[in-house]
Amino acid sequence: MKRITCLVLIGLVLVNGTILLLNFAAEDTSAAGIAESPWPCFHGNIRNTGLSQYDTSSNDGMLKWSYQTGDKILSSPVIGMDGTIYFGSADTYLYALYPNGTLRWRYKTGGTVSSSPAIDSDGTIYFGSYDGYIYALYPNGTLKWRYKTDNMISSPLSIDFEGTIYAGSADTYLYALYPNGTLRWRYKTGGTVSSSPAIESDGTIYFGSKDSYVYALNLDGTLKWKYKTGDGVESSPAIDGRGTVYIGSSDYHVYALNPNGTLKWKYQAGNKVLSSPAIGPDGTIYVGSQDTYLYALNPDGTLKWKYKARMNIMLSSPAVGAEGTVYIGSLDTQIYAVNPNGTLKWKYSTGDMISSSSPAIGPDGTVYIGSGSGALFALGHVTLPSPPRNLQATTGDGYVNLSWEPPEDDGGSPITEYRIYKSNSSGDEAFLVSVGKKLYYNDTNVTNGRTYSYFVTAANRLGESPASNEVRATPITVPTAPVNLQAISGDGYVNLSWDPPEDDGGSPVIKYVIYRGNISGYEAYLATVSNVLCYTDTSVINGETYYYYVTAVNDAGEGPNSTEVSATPLSVPSAPRNLRATSGDGYVNLSWDPPENDGGSPVTGYRIYRRTSSTNETLLAVVEDVYYYNDTTVVNGQKYYYSVTAVNDVGEGPFSTKASATPEAMPSGMSQKKKQGKTIGDYWWALLIIVVVIIAILVFVLRKKAGRPPKESEEE
């Protein structure tokens, strides 16, 4: 038994070449097959039936969106598990689009990508390119691996239930690759293989070749049977529930083959049948022909109906909704939606020929197809969007900034623009501006202090949504500076006052901020007051100069500084100190020391007050800044009481402590002399000094004449 197995292996090597033997040990069976997505491969499933599980009854042929590539699209789109749409373009890229038609990523190859991708259950995307490579990309668009064939690949790819990837090449081979990108086997035909394999549940692989044959291969790549048609087979086979294989040929026929490779029936069209058959929910077979007709054939091969397009139907193949609507593209630029009874439901012009791209059907009934215009189109049921959500307004100096969130429902077609409406009163908004797809707008055509109302609408290809929630906003700015700041100082205080700003910025002033410093220009925060126009600063020292400015604050913030003012708080001087009174005959002599504190302003004079025990204290005299006074307006024997105050520019200070004195008369002789005025006796001490000096001079002169030096006082 072991020997027989070895012979079989060697035989496979001889038939298929050394590649099979060398890579046999590298088989990877970890993959789980085709993705369970809405449309994971050409014609929607590995049996190539073209039948969707999704109802498309609501699809009314409205353009939901289109995405423009750099060249014509020959590839048929497929749809991933997350709704991503994958397709190739003649611009050499494979594209991945989000369901809303925006680019997710694109991957560059070395040639046209007309091959339709296939998606594995792990999300890997497989496709071929005219550069001869079979590519495997991760879901994020990065390269997983690539495998080089000997010629270009235009065949749509297929994946069986084991995860084996199948691709036909212009080098005449059908390739079977393991999920890790190594060759499992390849099968040589007599012509280009552009047909996409269909895979039966028993593992049989069906495909056509331009050598005119339809092939059935076993899973190991060996031939099960082949059936010869009258010309090349570019059509891809479809398998119905009974195992019947339907395929078209360039010999103008549609063939129905039994699972054993025998002919069940064939139907002749008016021209080549390059289109691949699709099978409707009732078993009807749909296929296009270059004679411009879409054919509907009964399962027994008789004509059910045919629908005429304006131009040829080339390689574009039908897709069928779950309810039976048939979709197909034509060289006349149109994609047709045909009812199950053969009448037109709708058609849509893509602007250029649809030569080989076939429709794909999404879970919401959207139909996707590529065109020679280079655009991929998404057609379906479109309604108006729901309103934009959560409209908000923020204000500032001369602006209102609006922001919002997209509608919860775009109506089945991407939002093309947002429209802003504005009014000075609620409910009367008028169109202001369209902002495209932006979710914000800054309105600068406003006046501070005026209230505005806004709402926003969203528009798609069908029209405009209802209005969003309304917002009201009042643009404001900070107030201008308070005006007419004034400072009045006093004993231990500076009293500030000001007038309101000329412009409150559109929002009422809510408070004022006072700043103070000891140096001009270096003020710091001192205090905040409510909406009042004055402030008394009592945290000052008399005699020191202070500098002030004030700012106004509203809901927008703090405004600029007012003009700067300065003030020096002053006080009256404290009381003079140490008041002393000495008396004589007819006078009282007063003296004192200056105040301990001049109140911040120099003392300019003193006031002397006097009283007797029987009189009130009255102002006696005012003197300049001296510290004594001689009161000669007294009566001997009368006791007098004195007080002194100091005066500065602020005013008069408190009384000093009191001092008293009683002037007394002198003895009678002295008194008479005083009355007569001054006598020589009043100056006796001065005369005595003069006499002593004169005597000393005479003694000195006499001794010098005698020639004798003066003697020391001891010797005398």
**Total count of strands:** 54
| Main structural class | mainly beta
Number of helices: 4
The helix fraction, in percent, is under 10%
In whole angstroms, the N-to-C terminal distance is 173 Å
Mean pLDDT: 90
Rounded Rg: 57 Å
Strand content: 35-45%
* Overall body shape: rod-shaped
Poorly predicted segments: 1-31, 670-682, 710-716
In this structure, how is the largest beta sheet organized?
5 strands, antiparallel
Can you describe what's shown?
With 716 residues, the protein is mainly β. The chain contains four helices and 54 strands. Strands 42, 43, 45, 46 and 47 form a five-stranded antiparallel sheet that branches. A four-stranded antiparallel sheet has the order 1-32-31-30, with no helix packed on it. Strands 2-3-4-5 form a four-stranded antiparallel sheet, with no helix packed on it. Strand 11 (165-168) and strand 12 form a beta hairpin. The longest helix has 22 residues, at 684-705. It starts with a helix and ends in an 11-residue tail after the last helix.
What are the main properties of this structure?
disordered C terminus, five-stranded antiparallel β-sheet, 716 residues, 4 helices, mainly beta
Task: Map the helices and strands.
Blueprint (H helix, E strand, L loop, with lengths): L1 H15 L1 H6 L38 E7 L9 E2 L5 E4 L4 E5 L5 E6 L9 E2 L5 E4 L4 E5 L5 E6 L9 E2 L5 E4 L4 E5 L5 E6 L9 E2 L5 E4 L4 E5 L5 E6 L9 E2 L5 E4 L4 E5 L5 E6 L9 E2 L5 E4 L4 E5 L5 E6 L10 E2 L5 E4 L4 E5 L5 E6 L10 E2 L5 E4 L4 E6 L8 E8 L2 E7 L11 E7 L6 E5 L5 E4 L8 E8 L11 E3 L9 E8 L2 E7 L11 E7 L6 E6 L4 E4 L8 E9 L2 E2 L6 E3 L9 E8 L2 E7 L11 E7 L6 E6 L4 E4 L8 E8 L11 E3 L6 H9 L7 H22 L11
Antiparallel strand pairs: 1-32, 2-3, 3-4, 4-5, 6-7, 7-8, 8-9, 10-11, 11-12, 12-13, 14-15, 15-16, 16-17, 18-19, 19-20, 20-21, 22-23, 23-24, 24-25, 26-27, 27-28, 28-29, 30-31, 31-32, 33-34, 34-37, 35-36, 35-38, 38-39, 40-41, 41-44, 42-43, 42-45, 45-46, 45-47, 48-49, 49-52, 50-51, 50-53, 53-54
